Amino acid sequence: MNVDRSYAGVDLNSDVGESFGAYTMGQDERLMASITSANIACGYHAGDPSVMRVTVRHALEHAVAIGAHPGFQDLVGFGRRPLRASPAEIEDLVLYQIGALSGIVRAEGGQLMHVKPHGALYTMASEERPIADAVVRAVKAFDGELVLVGRSGSSLLDAGQASGLNVASEVFADRAYKADGTLVSRTADGAVIVDVASVVERAVSMVTRGVVAAVDGTPVAVHADTICVHGDTPGAAALSVGLRAGLEAAGVGVVAFASKKQAAARRE
Question: Considering the entire predicted model, what is its pTM?
Answer without folding.
Answer: 0.91
